[in-house]
Fold each of these.
Amino acid sequence: MRKIRSFFRFGDKKLFFIALAMAFWQYLWGRRIPYGKHAETGQLPVFPALPEDGIRYVLAVRRVLKLVRKYFPLPFKCRHEARLAGWLLRQEKINYFTCIGFKEEQGVLQGHAWTVSGGIMVCGFCNPKEYMVTNCFTG
């Protein structure tokens, strides 16, 4: 009952349901949301600071993705989350970049994807310096 009450107080219900629908769309119809335009690898893009509205929206997307990751019934990996974050930010014409990187840990190669907008890590919380970035996409 407490969870239901707190959900109704949650201000980003519309954004949550849009994100949840897009997450299902990725899985059910096999369609992939594009990461964005391919950027030069080797140097991460630098965007100007976001306005106050943009910062609020980026933080809302961050909260919504955390909820989708928690309640989505299928495996929701970092690559799905990064695509969805990029799509949500593109809808509001907010600049972002999504990176895909790899690192070797105990002899095993691990891949990871993360999205950053205006210096705020939206999803895929990690230390980017630990990864060798192979692809970067901007939007």
Amino acid sequence: MIRGYQHSIQSRLKWVLLTLLMMVVFGALSNYPVSILYVSLNTLALAVFAFFFAFLSLQSLKQAKFSRLYILSFLILLVPVIGAFQSYKVFGQPLIYGLLSERTKLFIVSGLLIVYALERSWVSLKEIEKTMVNVGLVYFLVGFTLIMFVPKDWISDFDFISLTQLRGYRLNINHGLYLALYFYSLIQVMRNFRVKFLILVILLFIYFAFIFKARALTLTVILVSLLMFFRHYSFLRILKIGTIFMLSLLFLFTISFIFLREELSVIVQLFVSAFNVFLGGEITDFSAQSRVFEYEIAKKGFLESPLFGNGFVSSRWNGGFPGMYGHFYPSDIGWIGLLFLYGLFGTLISVLPFIFSFKFALQKKKIENSFISALNYLYLYYFLSSLVGGYFVKKTGLLFFIFSLLYYYYYSSKKNTESIKKLD
């Protein structure tokens, strides 16, 4: 009886710790009216990650054995350190400002920590899967309820929502858990056709395309979803599903044209404006216009410091990049922003986990685990989105956390296969 009680306590404690880890890594509380809790959790997480990295470094030195994951994490952590020196060299920013402005890069240690726990059977992939899905579901339902059903007068003064000129009201939150839930639900629909997950897929896609009105996000989600269909279905089935999808889309477009003509016009205008950035046509959206200006600044800065970049400038130092250049945020412009900040060296190091994950995917073509399969597609989404978005700059910890789970699954599967071969 005592053992059963202890096991129950341990299970609940494990659930609480995993839930907190998911909320920290995915930035779930960002901009919600719980700033004290958000800052406290992040500060505590940074302290834990710093302590654990120091502990793991000393342990590895003592054993004279460094894992591939540790070496990779060390290299990624080295990039912002070099960046701090570069920002001192280029802009005269004190080193302490450069280092502190990049402190959230320590969140990559979350990947080392979760693999350490998995290797010692303190936690299982199934428990991580269950926690991520449940936290993601609650997070989505809260956000969806706020944007759809709560009167905007009640919440318009809060930071988690804002009124934009073309898109209307939007949630200013991190959407990582929404995306994780979308790809997980889509995998469940494709493999088992579970209705509750189909409803989630539809609701999430409606949110991305028609409520949040995110151009790059929506297009990348569609692209990755199509790739999932091609990998999981035969050509004939894809043709049938594609026909049904196109007819459904035509029906929705007709309904939208009749009843939501103004909303539909705004969405079309946003996408056309984004494409015109690359095609050279008329740009009517300020967001798209500003990126043209930012590209020019980043290009010039990269050419002046191509190897190690210019480093990150804290907002506390001369107003940050906007104080120096006007409207300029390197994280807005994808890889060119990354090259501006960290140069060729930092960009190459940042891309290494994606190269390794691509190698894993090629070597293990069929993944039975739905959770890992969903993480693979989520990781692919971030890679494609990083071409024009700032995920390498702002979401380093989240990206490495996802990569670490893929790394663990691949190498644990490889060890199990080798063990079976030895027994044979």
Amino acid sequence: MHIVGSLVQGHRRLTYIRGSMSVSLVPEAERDSRGARRALVLVIALHLILLLLMLRDYFADNDLGYHISLARQYAENGVYWWDYLNWAPTGRPNLQGPALHYAIGFLGRLMGGDGWAYINAFSILAVGQWAAAVFTAVYFARRFGGDRAALFAAALLTPGGSSFSRRGRSTSSSKSATSGPSCSGL
């Protein structure tokens, strides 16, 4: 990265990097922290390992079941414009974007094409979405706030894996307002 120029305004430093501007709220000397980087790797790795270990026991609730059923219909029919399965008997237009459903359907077909294959495909992609969210937050937090901000961002997002259910019971310590019996699959 080639820094072209720098301007200090109050407590913020605006750095111009080849036509783009990076706003850092943290002084340059305080941005790097070897301990925060090590803790960041440890927090993300620990949560990723726990998520991967629970894939076999993943429990799909009502909403996830809906998306898994749409994915299976996409995999078996190619397109799925009218949803008779979830909105029987008359059906309704399928209003969901197809990208995630195609991905689940494709992976489910690769894994065998039975009902459990689609559930497992959904679980794998859910962990992938979690990883994408964590790494995106860490990237921008580190870019704008340094290593400690990246650790804080990861620590805020990584407990989200605890909202995955195991055998129908939520593993998170507190329930949200929408986690009643109709939403949590209990």
